[in-house]
Q: What sequence folds into this?
């Protein structure tokens, strides 16, 4: 299994028989070298979205059209795109599980917001979400954009993820200290990978506080387009 950071909250996840692009904001992303776009999307089988904000939706529709692959996510947004953007989609909702090339992807709660830019301001884009992705003997918790929430208690107990991909940049989401608190209190991770940081000066620039708060956990600060093999 390979986990490759695409900058900000974007990841390329190679698991089972799937290559899943998670929140692929490539064009205009300060962290992503646009001349490496082909490398990032090569062989992708699905796009998985946590919510509708532009720094997560990013290149989703163009990638889906270019590669002829489905976009997977909250039913409201996906069904709208299937009608108006004429893309293939797999829409589901919290508590639901879909099979993506042998990887079992379950949608779970997040605490954030979800909208897209409209002509007269923000437009509803379905609820924000996170995912538990099970495959190859691991369960990965992709938090999406969220703060600490009590739901993490049952999510950790029920799904028992050993890998956490956690938003931790602060201002719009948990910061490093809060992410460390959530990980320590609610989960039993072996590996934690921070995201939604370093992109802008407003966000946290390193994971020192996350690492300090999680002794015994392998906290990996990812580098863009450098695969992490698990």
A:
């Amino acid at each position: 299994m390979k986990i490759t950071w695409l900058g900000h909250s974007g990841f390329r996840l190679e698991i089972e028989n799937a290559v899943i692009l998670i929140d692929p904001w490539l064009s205009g992303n300060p962290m992503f070298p646009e001349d490496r776009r082909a490398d990032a999307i090569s062989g992708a089988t699905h796009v998985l979205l946590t919510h509708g904000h532009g720094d997560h939706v990013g290149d989703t529709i163009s990638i889906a059209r270019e590669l002829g692959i489905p976009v997977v996510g909250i039913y409201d947004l996906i069904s709208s795109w299937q009608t108006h953007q004429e893309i293939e989609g797999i829409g589901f909702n919290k508590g639901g599980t879909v099979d993506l090339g042998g990887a079992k992807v379950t949608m779970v709660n997040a605490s954030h917001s979800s909208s897209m830019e409209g002509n007269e301001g923000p437009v509803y884009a379905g609820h924000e979400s996170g995912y538990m992705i099970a495959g190859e003997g691991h369960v990965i918790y992709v938090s999406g954009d969220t703060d600490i929430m009590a739901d993490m208690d049952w999510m950790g107990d029920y799904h028992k993820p050993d890998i956490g991909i956690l938003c931790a940049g602060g201002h719009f989401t948990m910061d490093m200290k809060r992410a460390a608190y959530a990980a320590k209190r609610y989960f039993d991770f072996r590996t934690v990978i921070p995201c939604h940081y370093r992109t802008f000066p407003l966000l946290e620039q390193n994971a020192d506080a996350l690492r300090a708060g999680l002794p015994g956990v392998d906290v990996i600060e990812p580098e863009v387009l450098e695969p992490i093999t698990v």
